Known about the structure:
Blueprint: H1 18-22, H2 31-40, H3 51-67, E1 81-84, H4 93-102, E2 117-120
Antiparallel strand pairs: 1-2
Amino acid sequence: MYTVAPKISYDLPNQITRAHIDALDQTLIPQTYRTLMLRCLDDVPKNRPNAKEVVEQLNTIADQVAISKPCLKCFENPRYARCLPCRHKTMCTACLNEMRQSDQRPKCILCRGIYTSIEEDTDSDTYKVATVSKK
Length: 135
């Protein structure tokens, strides 16, 4: 998976490490893909995903990339992350993180509400209604 991820150089490292994965461009690669790569490299074999799980997750990630819309701030990168608690998906991860670093109280560019965290999902809708699980 690391071999085909977008990056400047396509030299195959002898030993792929967490540092290689951390160095990948976060604006081009969904966090779910990065997490899957790290799980595949886990030192404990029981913690690694099986082939069926890898295929299912790769299909989900492919769908996420295929339906992603461009960031409303930079208009370049796809938007993979959603602001919480407003649940608007308007910016790419890079722009969201940039806003969080430059402002202690970053605001969603759509509703101007302060967001406290971000969440990645596969839904391409700009707004997603929160679901409440019944116990």
